[in-house]
Specification:
Length: 330
Amino acid sequence: MKKGASKFIHLKSLVAAILVSCLVASCTKQIDVEIPKQDAQLVVEGNIDVGQPPLIFLTRSQNFFGNINVNDLSSYYVHNARIWVRHENDSVQLAEFCLNNLPLTQRQKEDLLRSFGFRISDSLPLPNVCLYSVPDLFSCILNGGCSFTGKFNSKYHLRIEADGKVLTATTTIPRAIGIKSLEVRPRPRPVENDSFVSVFVNLEVPDTFGNFVRYWTKRNSEPFYLPASQSVWSDKLFVGLDIALPLERGYPPRANVKPEDYSYFLKGDTVTLRWANIDSRTYDFYNTLENDGGQSPFSNPVRVLSNIEGGGLGVWAGYGSQYYTIIIPR
């Protein structure tokens, strides 16, 4: 080998060594990145159902890299907001109710939170949940006959004044489009003396586009639970068809379920389905929320489509709920 070539190879080795040293050093060098702070936004979770008063949960968003106080989630609720719901010429200003101020037993408070969709943990104290609803809310719950409730085929306007902002939203409770029946079928690939079964929804889909549904299931005396994978359906694939779709069973939080038994019901169960017609913007919100890729760090983010105007986040949802029950033979 020539002497000049040897020097060239030595120089290449020296450069490579320097580059490796720089790369190693860069792995341990402290890099300061200033993450921009985002102003807290108002977050609305509101709904009105047929025969039920409006319910509004109003909170402030938390910076992703901020310190979330899990021991005092009540600190995120927005108090003293001015909120109205209007239907045609009838309107109502909502009142604020907080759990700690209610003359209820611990069990009654737990039941109330579950009825609002909260997951209760035995290891944590009950959060001081605050909501806005009609002033006669508890008379309405105990005695019926609320002063302001939802009706089928009606439009409801929401106005919120809080933190110097004005948020507005409109939702519709669509006309009633129910199901034909519930049906019990053996689950696919049943085992010997199988105690699990499938429940199917038989329905006749209208021959016009634009029908949307959200659903919950209840087993025996359990509360209603949402299915884990997808709670909303669109008619875009089934317009004008008579179809039977398997019903995904909802579970309580942290339920220990074997994968092969997931979504099936048990023989002897009483199964109740809450089937709620919703409008397109309510569907868009929950469809994007449930498909935002949050369960995988490798998925692409999805922009959640809110129907709240004026700088807030969340949803104002109208539900045209109907209820169906089937007793599964033993």
